[in-house]
Amino acid sequence: MILAVAPALPLQTAGKYVAGAYVVFLAIVLIYVAIVATRLARTERDLTELRRDVELRRQQAAGESGQDSERAREPVA
What we know:
The chain is mostly helical. The protein has a domain at 32-57. It is 87% helix and 0% strand. It has two helices and no strands. The protein has helices at residues 2-5, 11-73. The chain is rod-shaped and about 100 Å long.
C-alpha cells in the first residue's frame, strides 16, 4: 500500500541515483576481488613454503637413514 502512495522520482533525478548505485556496486565487487586475490596469493606463497619444508624434511630423513645403513655396514675394530 505504501508503495502505491509514494510518488515516483522524475526521470531526470532517478538516473543519477541509478548511476550512483551502479558505481557503488562496482566498487564493492572490485574491493571483493582484490581481497580474494590477496588471500589467494598469500595461500599460494604459504603452500609453496610448506612444500619446500616437506621436501627438505624428506631429504633430511633420507640422508639420516642412509647414514645409519652405512654405519651398520662398516666393520667394527
